[in-house]
Structure formats: structure tokens, C-alpha cells
Amino acid sequence: MIVDLEANTTYRCRCWPERVARRRARQLSREIPARFQNVGFEREPIPSIARTAPDAVRAVRRYCDRVDEMLAQGEGMWFLGSPGTGKSHLAYLISQHALAAGRSVAIYTGPRLLDEIRRTYGEEDSNSTLDLIDRLTSVELLHIEDLAVARPTEWVLEQLYNIINGRYENERSIVFTCDLTGDGTGEEEREDASPPRPDRLARHITQRNFSRLVEMCGDPHILMGSDNRRAQYRAHAWES
Ligand SMILES: Nc1ncnc2c1ncn2[C@@H]1O[C@H](COP(=O)(O)OP(=O)(O)OP(=O)(O)O)[C@@H](O)[C@H]1O
Ligand SMILES: [Mg+2]
Questions:
Q1: In whole angstroms, what is the distance from residue 201 CA to residue 183 CA?
Q2: CA of 87 to the centre of ligand 2 (A)
Q3: Which residues of the chain have pLDDT under 70?
Q4: Is the dihedral of CA 112, 145, 75, 15 positive or negative?
Q5: What digits encode the pLDDT tens for the residues 59-82?
Q6: Which neighbouring-strand residues pair with 221?
Q7: Is the CB of 221 under 6 A from ligand 1?
Q8: Ligand 1: which of 43, 179, 228, 232 to mutate, judged by most atoms within 8 Å of the beta carbon?
Q9: Where are the extended beta strands (E) located within 118-171?
Q10: Under CATH, domain 24-239 is a member of which superfamily?
Q11: Are the CB atoms for 136 and 112 separated by under 8 Å?
Q12: Boundaries of every domain in the chain
């Protein structure tokens, strides 16, 4: 609060909304998993990803270099492609830079996010869903891993809409990853799986959620190729 002695009044500082958002975000999940804690542009696998997807890495670097500005503008980013191609590493680079810049960040996998919402359903405190949605709406960066989850219930989709639309209206950034190769019948396991169709995400999360995400996050950064996790174990003698 700022005290104006001359006018004998107090008013909220410009930083008030950000402070409130940060305080409220403390109760959200914001841990970077151990595997991604030390991601860096100079550390593997980012230089390798830069060889296969140079545009995506360049865009992430641009975003990280201007993270304050990007978050202030509500700019997001999304990564789409086959498994083991580095989508999560690129997304965590952004979260890591946002946290290092002192911004509030919430990190969830798609299924866990929906689970958290579902858990509040039927709780005695009828405000708990509203409260969670409110926190997820106001945090400065929402990072969702693997958003292409199986189609959830209508109620959960509605809550997802409340989050996405709330962030859309308040110009809050979202970064997410998504694996949409194959047809959901195990085809995604194949290395020659068909290229991803971004609009198929709409089938999972509804057209209105998809439409807002695309406006906030732009075109997806596509990462295709063979699964680097499998490439690692293929290097073992027993696999050759
Ligand atoms: N271009 C690459 N070159 C070498 N290794 C890579 C490359 N991309 C990813 N990896 C390695 O592959 C593994 C998976 O990376 P990551 O989790 O970022 O992939 P992903 O695209 O998010 O996969 P998924 O869709 O299954 O979540 C990690 O061990 C990472 O080091
Ligand atoms: Mg991933």
C-alpha cells in the first residue's frame, strides 16, 4: 500500500496484482522434476535438439531472453510431436527462466491438473474448485506437460475452459507440450508415425479451449523424429 500523506489517503501500488498472484501461486505445484532441473542451452540434450529442430530452440531462446516481456504480454508457446524428441526439455527451459526471473510458475502434467480439479469436486468447501481455478488463472506462467490426455468428463472440461479462458482474458501465458502422433491405438510407438495434426488437440480438449490456446501460443513448434529414449538403450550391446 502507498500512503499519500498530502491527500490523506492510501492506494495500492502497481505491483499489487503481481504480488497477490505470487502469494496465491505458492499453493500450486511449481517443482521442476529432477530430470529437468539443470536444463540449459549449453547442456545436452539442448545442443542436439538444436541440430534437429533449430527453429524451435531459437524461438525458446528468444522467449527466455525476454521472459519478463513475454509474460507481461501473455505470450505462450507449445511443442507438439512424437515421444522422446525434446519437447519437455524446451518447455522446462522456459519455466526455469521464468522462475529465475522471480515470476510465479505452476507446473502440472495434463492428467495431474485434471485430477486436482476433479479432487475438489464434491469437497465440502464448495469454494475449493473456484479457489483452485482462481489460482491457476492468476499465476504468471502455467506450464502443462502432455496436454493431450484422454477426453475427460464434461465437468472437468468445463473447469479446463475456466482456466484457459481466464488466462486468455487476463493475458496470462501458457506453455505446454503435447504428443499427438498415431491414432491412440499404440501407433504412436512407431518411429514412422504420421506427422502430428495440431487440430486433433481440439478433439481432446474441445474446440473452444483449442482456439484460445492457439491464439495465446501461436503455431506449435513441431519436433519429430525417432524416440531418443529408445535410441539410448539401442546403444546397449544386448540390443544390437
Ligand atoms: N534431439 C535429441 N538428441 C538427443 N537426445 C535427445 C533429443 N531430444 C530428446 N533427447 C533425450 O530424449 C529423452 C526425452 O526427452 P524429452 O523428455 O524432452 O522428450 P519429449 O519430447 O518430452 O517426450 P514425451 O513426448 O515422451 O514426453 C531425454 O533423455 C533427452 O535427453
Ligand atoms: Mg515430455
A1: 12
A2: 6
A3: 25, 123-126, 149-150, 181-195, 233-240
A4: positive
A5: 999 999 999 999 999 999 999 998
A6: 79
A7: no
A8: 228
A9: 141-145
A10: P-loop containing nucleotide triphosphate hydrolases (3.40.50.300)
A11: no
A12: 24-239
Distance CA 223, CA 88 (A): 11
- What was the pLDDT predicted at 123? 65
**Cα–Cα dist 171/190, whole Å:** 38
Residue type at position 191: E
d(CA 17, CA 134): 13
Please name the helix (run of DSSP H) or strand (run of DSSP E) that holds residue 78, with its range, or none: strand 77-81
Task: Identify which of 43, 229, 233, 234 to mutate to test ligand 1's pocket (most ligand atoms within 8 A of the CB).
Answer: 229
Ligand 1 pocket, residue 110 CB under 6 Å: no
CB 212 within 8 A of CB 168: yes
Cβ atoms within 10 Å of 219's Cβ, excluding its own: 10
Alpha carbon separation from 138 to 25, 62, 74, 171, 189 (Å, rounded): 8, 24, 11, 10, 37
Look-up of cell digits 503435447? 178
Task: Match 547442456 to its residue by C-alpha cell.
Answer: 43
pLDDT, tens digit, for every residue of 196-234? 788 888 888 999 999 999 999 999 999 998 888 887 766
